[in-house]
Amino acid sequence: LQDIFNKKPFRPAWNYSHPTIANISFTLYAVLGVNEKTQILTTFLWLRLYWYHEFLQWDPAECGGIEKISLPVEDLWAPDIIVYEFIDEDKSQRTPYVYVNHTGRIRYDRMLRVVSSCNLGIFNFPFDVQNCSLTFGPYMHTVKDVRLGLALPIEQISENSKKYLETSGEWELVRIEGSADVLTFGIDEWDIVTFWWPDSVSFKERPILYVVNLLIPSAFLMVIDTMSFYLPPHSTDRASFKMTLLLGYTVFLLIMNDLLPSTTNGTPLIGIYFSVCLALMVISLLETVIITNILHHNSVQHSRTPGWVKKLVLKYIAKIICYRLPMAQPEPNCKMLFLFPNFLGKEQQKEPGLIKQQCSYTQDLLWISEDIRAIRSYLELHYREKEFEREWILIGSVLDSLLYRIYLLFISVYAIVISSLWCA
User: Fold this and answer.
1) Same domain membership, residue 141 and residue 180
2) 192 with 238, same domain?
3) 32 & 164 share domain
4) Which residue of 19, 51, 131, 163 has the smallest Cβ count within 10 Å?
5) 218 and 198: one domain?
6) Are the beta carbons of 180 and 41 closer than 8 angstroms?
7) Alpha-carbon distance 126 to 261, whole Å?
8) Can you give the three-state secondary structure of the chain, one letter per residue?
9) Share of the chain above pLDDT 70, in %
10) Is 331 inside any structural domain?
11) 305 contacts: CB under 8 Å, gap ≥ 6
12) In the chain, what percentage of residues exceed pLDDT 90?
């Protein structure tokens, strides 16, 4: 064996015109990390490499029936198989030995921590499926020296990886597909085995973490904001409640910002979802401000509702949205008939004393009549203002109901669109 060890710098072939056959297979054991900002994928592989060493062949019958031995990997020639997407220092743990059988076939198993570049798509986060390529091939040896192929069928590689990756973190392996190809650069050609799109290593995140911590709380806050429309529109509690809810949603987004992926290539759909939800809450608050202004319009100006507004809102819009208008209240009858009896009868005029007493009574009745007329004027003005206020409140209620239905329609359409985009 020492003679063979001394020939380590040379490719183990009796005829150098014949290339060395090498085959690879791997098992994707874990996805260690995904950095969307730098577009880097870190995976952990169990790599298995086979090749033939034509100098290491023997007859087991002449060697005590020994068919397989282990030898130090540092003492034998090995093909320079690398991962072309590798962009970091190789910090993988080295395996010190290889197995060699009597036919000269060598099996080299090693653990490989691959830090590779990958075009990560985050638009459908957390329901996205990542398709990353892993290209295995020699660094220096061309097809004249080393021919590369698969040691196992692609289906077997995919099944083995799924079996070990199914309990590994938040990532779930979808499929592994690949093909053998020839890489041409100038006049040289290299044999490579590539796992890429459409032949790719596809994996996706298990979204339950983000659904529970992000989507469901956001949906609950939107439901609460929608139900807040059932608060009395003429009460200031609705505006205060909506402002508190908007503040709480903003704090929620600040806390959950670290869970969202960030990249300069685009914005994930979940970020758009949160932004639109925040915009809807702002629109809901603006709607409350507008309705509050309409409802309190009469408290400042005490003006009559314009006829065209009253006709448009109470006649057409109320009918379109099926709003049931309250029964019209009868106007109070403040008209009073003041009758002054003729205290001075013919018989009574004959008595001067009685006549003085009746004049005193008449003067008192005139004063009372003036007071009653003032009360009547005040009551008429009060009832007129109340009628104006009732009309403005009724118009505000109809418009509030209309905007609430539009808000519900927009939220329903938005929920359908966002769900279809995530499920596509």
Assistant:
1) yes
2) no
3) yes
4) 163
5) no
6) no
7) 9
8) CHHHHHCCCCCCCCCCCCCEEEEEEEEEEEEEEEECCCCEEEEEEEEEEEEECCCCCCCHHHHCCCCEEEEEHHHCCCCCEEECCECCCCCCCCCCEEEEECCCEEEEEEEEEEEEECCCCCCCCCCCEEEECEEEEECCCCCCCEEEEECCCHHHHHHHHHHHHCCCCCEEEEEECCEEEEEEECCEEEEEEEECCCCCEEEEECCHHHHHHHHHHHHHHHHHHHHHHHCCCCCCHHHHHHHHHHHHHHHHHHHHHHHCCCCCCCCCHHHHHHHHHHHHHHHHHHHHHHHHHHHCHHHHHCCCCCHHHHHHHHHHHHHHCCCCCCCCCCCCCCCCCCCCCCCCCCCHHHCHHHHHHHHHHHHHHHHHHHHHHHHHHHHHHHHHHHHHHHHHHHHHHHHHHHHHHHHHHHHHHHHHHHHHHHHC
9) 70
10) yes
11) 388, 391, 392, 395
12) 5
What's phi and psi for 301, nearest 5 deg?
Answer: -100, -25
In a domain, 61, yes or no: yes
Beta strand pairing status for 105-117 and 40-52?
antiparallel
The answer on 155 and 271 residing in a single domain is no
Burial of 419 (0-12, 13-18, 19+ CB in 10 A): exposed
Question: Are 148 and 16 in contact, with CB atoms under 8 Å apart?
Answer: no
* Calpha distance 25→163 (Å, rounded): 15
How many Å apart are CA 200 and CA 129, to the nearest integer? 11
From 161, 179, 206, give the residue that closes a domain: 206
**What's the predicted TM-score (pTM) here?**
0.59
Residue in the structure block whose two tokens are 């077997």: 156
Range of the domain at 305: 299-414
Task: Report if residue 424 sits inside a domain.
Answer: no
Q: Are residues 229 and 342 in the same domain?
A: no
Closest CA to 135 of 108, 117, 113: 117
Residues with Cβ < 8 Å from 310, sequence gap 6 or more? 391, 395
Contact 310, 390 (CB under 8 A): no
Which one-letter amino acid corresponds to residue 222? M
In whole angstroms, give the CA distance from residue 170 to residue 212: 14
Contact between 161 and 168 (Cβ < 8 Å): no
Q: Please choose, from the candidates 332, 306, 286, 289, the residue with its C-alpha nearest in 3D space to the C-alpha of residue 392.
A: 306
pLDDT at 101: 92
Where is average pLDDT lowest: 57-71, 106-120, 148-162, 349-363? Answer: 349-363
Residue-level pLDDT at 385: 63
Over residues 268-277, the mean pLDDT reads 84
Same domain for 194 and 50, yes or no, is yes
Straight-line distance from the first to the last Cα atom of the chain, in angstroms, rounded to the nearest whole number? 60
Give the integer Cα–Cα distance in Å for 171 and 39. 16
